[in-house]
Amino acid sequence: MAPIIGEQDEFEGIYTEKFRGLARPYGEFVQYERDRAAIDIGLHLTQTTTSRYRSLSNTRIWVQLKGVRSSTLKLEDFIEAEYVTLDLKIEHLRFWYASPEAVYLIVYVECADVFLAEDIRDIVDRQWGERIFQTNTFRAGQEKARVRIPKNVPLSDDVWSRMLSHRSLRVDGPTFRGRPLGHRLDPLRCIPNKMEPSVFSDVVSRLLSVHGYKLVETLDGSLLFPNARSSGDIVSLSEGIMYYTYEWVPQIFTEFGFDPDSDFRIEGEIIHVQGPCAVLIHSNKVSYPDQEALREFAQELVGTKNTRRLLVFVNDDDPAYFGSFFGTVRGTGLECMPQRLSDLTFNLLIATTVYLEFRDKITWRIVNYLF
């Protein structure tokens, strides 16, 4: 007897082609030669460069396509429902959840002629989280688990745009204190070249953001640099709260070379800030702070606002700049150890997502690699 193409085969063919038509403007298809990965389609996502052209991004996502027929879910029931449910193999859910690249469950609902799309990690995190890998999470012998796809996640332009935020991280290279960095640069012993002021400001702002810096008040940078407008200094000053610990290693105390009889190298002491603090970003350094104004500012922070930490970032490696802050605030109760450009390296290179975001805008004066 010849192989039979049944109704389910026809249905799968229809929604697969529908999906391909929707996906084609957003990426190039990737396909496994054999269906052994329990994943239907891969997409190497593209970005629009002009109205006529697209360029390949560094993001690849994978799609497991499913369909729900009208005979199974009627339109009136779909309208009333909060979720669409599917029974999927537990071993597949575990495999997709652990995948280094994003896997999306995309469900075609025939009665409404709509695709629903959600990252499998969001689904699993919502229902089981890491417990999905524990044997006692499911009944003995259970092969499938029911997943719920919210009805309010239709496949849309916004969803495609958000997919570009996915990144795959190389974990097969050298690690830093057991942490995969996705690059080979030594966080303690590399020095960047001076950045464009706007790039420096953006880099520091992103580092603050990923450490949960919450702005309370924007201050006038001319308080500390009264001649900034005429001198060309670009300064921003603010007060806020650092929700996660921000730490760095002053490079001046870090040993770059090796002793003749040892491969041991000294690392500088870690400095950290958490909680209320003031932040100064000196994106274009021409001059030094006004010492009298800085002492008054320090006394006000400590005495009036009970803020005892001042974070200073400067787009320069001038040794004298360190003393212009550290020495001036001494005795006021305010702690301030400025981060020169070389000191920024530590946080930039261990905050991998930030480094990957700006790596094409940063050049290096000194590079040392981890092996």
Short précis:
The chain is α+β, with helices and mostly antiparallel strands and 371 residues long. The chain has 11 helices and 15 strands. The longest helix is centred in the first third of the chain and has 17 residues, at 7-23.
Structure, described:
The chain is an alpha+beta fold and 371 residues long. The chain has two domains: 7-163, Trna Endonuclease, Chain: A, domain 1, CATH 3.40.1350.10; 175-366, Restriction Endonuclease (3-Layer(aba) Sandwich), CATH 3.40.91. It contains eleven helices and 15 strands. Strands 1-2-3-5-6 form a five-stranded mixed β-sheet. The longest helix has 17 residues, at 7-23. The radius of gyration is 27 Å and the shape is elongated. The mean pLDDT is 92.
